[in-house]
Amino acid sequence: MEDEINLTTPDTDLSERDKLLVDIDRALKIYYSVALVTVGTVLNILSIVILSRAAFRNSTTSVYLRYLACIDMFVLYNGLSRHFVSGISGYNIRYLSEAFCKFNLWSSAFAPDISAWILVVVTTERLMSIVLPHRVRTVCSKSTAAAAVIVITLIIMASNLPVLFFFGDQQVREDETNLTVTLRCVILTDYETFMNKVWYWLDLLKFVLLPSSILTIFNIIIIIYVIRSRRRVEKVVATKTFRGRPNSMTLTILKGSRHAQLTSGHPDFTTTTVPNNCVSGSNKEISLTITLLVINATFVICNTPIVVYFLASQYWFPPGLQPAERLTLTASIMAMYTNNAVNFLLYCATGSRFRAEIRHLCSDLRNAGSSWAASSRLVKNNNTSSEVLKSNHLDDQMVSVMGSMESFYTYQ
């Protein structure tokens, strides 16, 4: 999804406004890239740790989300390292060699695609669990989740293999000097028309447009089903017997008690008890659904700028406004990478179980720290006691030796 724009105008010929835009562009590449990589690494590692604990370990969703965290870290390091070096030195690391150019372009293409389609698979599973709750247990398991991850990865990596042939080093002859110049990591002439008219649109479709459309449609269906389910949970239609005659009435579940007591308040009505685990189970499902909805919405929002740029840049940026175009592209790319760094914050903001597990982890770490400190003090005390015993034993031996010597000299 990334493109490379080269400034053809020297910095000395730029206006003050364009120089400011170039400085902002460089600052984004240096400081924002470092911030995203640092924060993204810490948060994604925390996501993997939390999702690997007992509370989430057996969930198929956690399999996808742990893999998503790993892919997100790869996306951040693979993509932002190039922008950081470019901001620091102005050098494009893709110029190191033709092989590295091809690999970096290929990995920069397939890694974000995998991240997007993992979200699609997770949302599909969530939709199945809501629409077909009895069938999802037989279809979705940890083994099928692992198989889905492998299949998605292989398909997406294979679908981006053409990038390896589209880019490379190319030799051109300059008419003015009649010299042969090597252009590094550029679109090869044979594929230039196909890249500009076909491939960029296919790339845009498989990375953003198609996943975003699927996520939006599935999210709408999920929201509709969640609202209906919530209404069914909060209102239970029960048939009662009132003075020997059946009577139908709607009763509201009282949340917060161990059992929700459903009663009309009339002495002739019997009391119906609904187990609280039905309510708590529904709340867990809704909490997970809200988390996925927020993650999907964040994906669409963060990737919208890059879509708008590729669709409208040719109309917005005529020749001569290259610094503005470069800054717009950099800002759009940074927004895209932000999505790969903030999922942990979204889990915390929307997932009550996730927040509870963080508290449990902190408690376990505190207990482990206290146990380690207590063990250290115990070992230290034992060592001190051993040293005292050894010292006393040595003193006794010295007294015994001195007594023997005194007896010897006295005897002589």
From TrEMBL:
GO CC terms: membrane
The keyword Transferase is assigned to this record: no
Keyword field contains Transmembrane helix: yes
Segments forming a coiled coil: none
GO molecular function, one term: G protein-coupled receptor activity
Source taxon at top rank: Eukaryota
UniProt subcellular location: Membrane
Domain named G-protein coupled receptors family 1 profile: residues: 43-347
First-listed, main subcellular location of the protein, grouped into a coarse class: membrane
Listed Gene3D superfamilies: Rhodopsin 7-helix transmembrane proteins
Keywords (A to Z) from UniProt: Membrane, Transmembrane, Transmembrane helix
Chain ranges passing through the membrane: 30-51, 144-167, 204-227, 290-317, 329-349
Record InterPro entries: GPCR-Ligand_Int, GPCR_Rhodpsn, GPCR_Rhodpsn_7TM
Full protein name: G-protein coupled receptors family 1 profile domain-containing protein
